[in-house]
Design a protein that fits this description.
Its main location: cytoplasm. This protein is of the alpha/beta class. The protein has two domains: 9-130 and 289-301, Aspartate/ornithine carbamoyltransferase (Rossmann fold), CATH 3.40.50.1370; 132-286, 3-Layer(aba) Sandwich (Rossmann fold), CATH 3.40.50. Helix content is 39%, strand content 13%. It is built from eleven helices and nine strands. Strands 7-6-5-8-9 form a five-stranded parallel beta sheet. It has a four-stranded parallel beta sheet with strand order 2-1-3-4, sandwiched between helices. The radius of gyration is 19 Å and the shape is globular. It binds phosphoric acid mono(formamide)ester and norvaline. Residues 126, 161-163, 222-223, 226-227, 261 line the site of norvaline.
């Protein structure tokens, strides 16, 4: 049986993603109704963090516990990984102890190497290139507030970063339109544009933030300086025309939502008036990390653990 990794939205079928999304909605409803089932009793999730986190860390920890499982929190620097033990060896060792691994790391290749060497599911908790769990939570949030995302118009402004890359993949998988406005030099990595274009995505790069937001159903932004990219950060002034403020937000549809994965840099990519205003659903997005990731965990762990590679069968 193949191991069910959750590495990227592009590595899943749209049917699998839809099933996980439906399960996330159902789990949230059941939790609010007081149901406490423990389908992952006896299972352990190892969580490796090579970068800081508040939401990912707490939502995976609480989510796994709500499902009856246990978690082990690891930081790359405190592991032998930080003393040059290879990712491959780490993957093989952890696979002997735990039932799944969640990793937040730098280079996307580290995530892929982990999946290639682990015999248990690996979940992407953010890399320099993508953040699929965030986008599952964001689309869940849109569906809760406005129904299906199909044919809706999302507008992204600011930096062409990991969250945008996953949103681009989602635009093809969930069939919504996506306008992107970023300053020159901050464009998303070409392979994400190519993948989306080749898989039915409807992405338009606009010259200005105003053009991107005109008539949008959802306006999305994120920090102008992602974790690990502090050295590359140019003057914030190049991003200023992409700040989501009330004037910009007013160009979107009256019922448009405002999304931000958090943490936010208030006064930079978004003003207080917008993030605390009537369009904003940022704390629903944060909550839905919990529900969406529980559905991801349940999907990954519903496959039986395959025999270890060098284990006699
Ligand atoms: N949005 C998000 O991933 O938040 P954390 O960095 O706090 O996990
Ligand atoms: N793009 C941001 C997302 C943080 C959750 C970063 O990588 O720092």
């Amino acid at each position: 049986m193949t191991v069910r990794h959750f590495t990227d939205l592009s590595s899943m079928t749209s049917q699998q993603l839809r099933a996980i999304m439906d399960d996330a909605h159902a789990r949230k409803t059941r939790l609010k109704a007081g149901e406490r089932s423990k389908p992952l009793e006896g299972k352990a999730l190892a969580m490796i963090f090579d970068k800081p986190s508040t939401r990912t860390r707490v939502s995976f920890d609480v989510g796994m516990r709500q499902l009856g499982g246990e978690t082990i929190m690891l930081t790359g620097t405190e592991m032998q990984l930080g003393r040059s033990e290879t990712i491959a060896d780490t993957a093989k060792v952890l696979s002997r102890y735990v039932d799944a691994i969640m990793i937040r790391t730098t280079d996307h290749a580290r995530l892929i190497e982990l999946t290639e060497n682990a015999s248990v599911p690996v979940i992407n908790g953010l890399t320099d290139e993508t953040h699929p769990c965030q986008i599952m939570a964001d689309l869940m949030t849109f569906e809760e507030h406005r129904g299906s995302v199909k044919d809706k118009l999302f507008a992204w402004m600011g930096d062409g970063n990991n969250v945008l890359h996953s949103l681009m993949e989602a635009s093809a998988q969930f069939d919504f339109r996506l306008n992107i406005a970023v300053p020159e030099g901050s464009e998303p990595v070409a392979r994400f544009t190519d993948w989306s274009n080749n898989n039915g995505g409807r992405i338009t790069f606009t010259r200005t933030a105003e053009e991107a937001v005109d008539g949008a159903d959802c306006v999305v932004t994120d920090t102008w300086v992602s974790m690990g990219f502090e050295d590359k950060a140019r003057g914030h002034n190049v991003f200023l025309p992409y700040q989501v403020n009330e004037k910009l937000m007013a160009r979107a549809r009256p019922e448009a939502l405002f999304m931000h994965c958090l943490p936010a840099h208030r006064g930079e990519e978004v003003t207080d008036e917008v993030i605390d205003g009537p369009h904003s659903v940022v704390f629903d997005e944060a909550e839905n990390r919990l529900h969406a990731q529980k559905a991801v965990l349940a999907w990954c762990l519903s496959a039986e653990k395959p025999a270890l590679r060098n284990e006699a069968t």
